[in-house]
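User: I'm writing a tutorial on reading structure tokens. Could you give me a worked example: one chain, its sequence, then its tokens, then a sentence or two explaining what the tokens reveal?
Assistant: Sure. Here is the example chain.
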Amino acid sequence: MPRQKPKQVEEQDAPWKLAVTGILKTGYWISDRLNETVKPFGISEQQLNVLFILKKCGKTCNLCHVQEQMFHKMSNATRLVEKLRVKGLVTRDIDENNRRRVDISITAKGLAFLDKIESKLKEGHQCYYENKLTDQEHILLAGLLEKFRK
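And here are its predicted structure tokens:
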């Protein structure tokens, strides 16, 4: 029986495959850098995301809104909020008229904690990201990524 020739490898991957692979690799790389920065503060990337969402909301924010805004849609927002509450970084209030409605607020301690982390993040961002692309390239990349997600 004659030997079969090995299947030829595609000469070039489809451009969309290269783009998706690059986006995934870059996303994981950025996530690793972020986790390196927040780990000494004793919180996770997802908990940090919750704090940023609450800060942007202002006074109070509904738990459903927090879940909708999170980067990691599969994260358990209730569990994340509880961990932040135990640390005194957020408060959680259940509506007496509608027990399914849970309002979350960032505390003064949470805001101070976030300020500390933000200054550390800024140092890291400048080191990792700012000097890799020009401002124009950052804007172009952000626009392309937004277009890709739609």
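What the tokens reveal: The radius of gyration is 21 Å. Helices lie at 15-38, 45-57, 63-69, 77-86, 108-130, 135-149.
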